[in-house]
Design brief:
11 strands, Sortase, Chain: A, two-stranded antiparallel sheet, 24% strand, 6 helices
């Protein structure tokens, strides 16, 4: 076997010690590490401040409002009732029709925020808040009920909608806060425990002029999109396609029907940076408030 002769030059390369890492590299690494830690601490501090501000406002709101259950009167109206032969036997529609509505006095709420248009209560969640509406869908993403800047935002109605003159699809948004305020607890709708309690399938909304009851027919999570946020439809076929699409997406079967004569309520929030949690319900009962 022949061995290759190692030259003195090669030996010098082998014996050459590695150069130590320059001090400035260590300094840069340490600086980046400290910056990351400080950035995280600042964000946590901001989050704590914003959540405390939200919680304080919620407490103040509950002190000035009175949520009253109201019984039926001559102004109560059942909306688009299904025909008996169209109603699935498992559908508790007629049981829900008998449920009381809620009424909220908006005088004090309007004093706090003139943008207040409704109050919403969603069974099986912490959602029990006044709803506001701005001239766009951006303002209340970063402003709370008292209109102070806060990345937690507030619960708001799509600027295109009018709860006194309902569109095909009325949409309410809020951030999915980790402390379960705003729409943070809307994620409950994807759990079997929520679904297994049929009392959770109804939503109450009170406005200054009406009280309404809505029956849930679809819940799901979906990658970010805007299709389900369509408020009105130009044709009956596009409307029916929309209803078929959002119903088929549901992770649970609510054993109910929905058609183009129904008014739809949509609740939407972020599940994470890439997905949304969505609930759809149809209007089943309305009562004009007595004056």
């Amino acid at each position: 076997m022949k061995y290759k002769k190692v030259s003195e030059k090669d030996l010098s390369k082998l014996n050459k010690k590695k150069k130590p890492i320059p001090n400035y590299i260590w300094f840069i690494c340490i600086f980046i590490g400290i910056s990351i830690i400080m950035f995280a601490e600042i964000n946590v501090a901001k989050w704590l401040k914003s959540t405390k501000q939200i919680e304080k406002q919620i407490e103040e709101i509950y002190k000035i409002i009175d949520i009253e259950e109201i019984s039926a009167n001559k102004e109560e109206k059942i909306i688009n009732p299904p025909k008996e032969d169209e109603l699935p036997p498992e559908d508790p529609y007629w049981d829900y029709i008998k449920l009381p509505l809620i009424a909220v006095n908006f005088d004090e709420l309007k004093k706090k925020n003139s943008d207040t248009v409704a109050f919403i209560k969603v069974n099986g969640t912490n959602i029990n808040y006044p709803v506001v509406q701005a001239k766009d869908n951006s303002y209340y993403l970063t402003h709370t009920y008292d209109k102070s800047y806060n990345p937690a935002g507030w619960v708001f109605l799509d600027y295109r909608n009018d709860l006194n003159n309902l569109d095909d699809n009325s949409i309410i948004y809020a951030h999915g806060m980790y402390n379960k305020t705003m729409f943070g607890s809307l994620k409950n709708i994807l759990n079997s425990n929520w679904y297994n309690n049929t009392d959770n399938y109804v939503i109450n909304i009170s406005t200054p002029s009406t009280s309404t009851l809505w029956q849930v027919f679809s819940v799901y999570d979906i990658p970010n999109e805007t299709y389900y946020l369509t408020s009105n439809f130009g044709t009956a076929s596009s409307h029916q396609k929309f209803l078929d699409t959002i119903t088929s997406r549901s992770v649970f079967n609510f054993n109910t029907t929905v058609n183009i004569n129904d008014k739809v309520l949509t609740l939407s929030t972020c599940k994470n940076d890439f997905e949304k949690v969505v609930l759809h319900a149809k209007l089943i009962k309305e009562q004009i408030k007595e004056t």
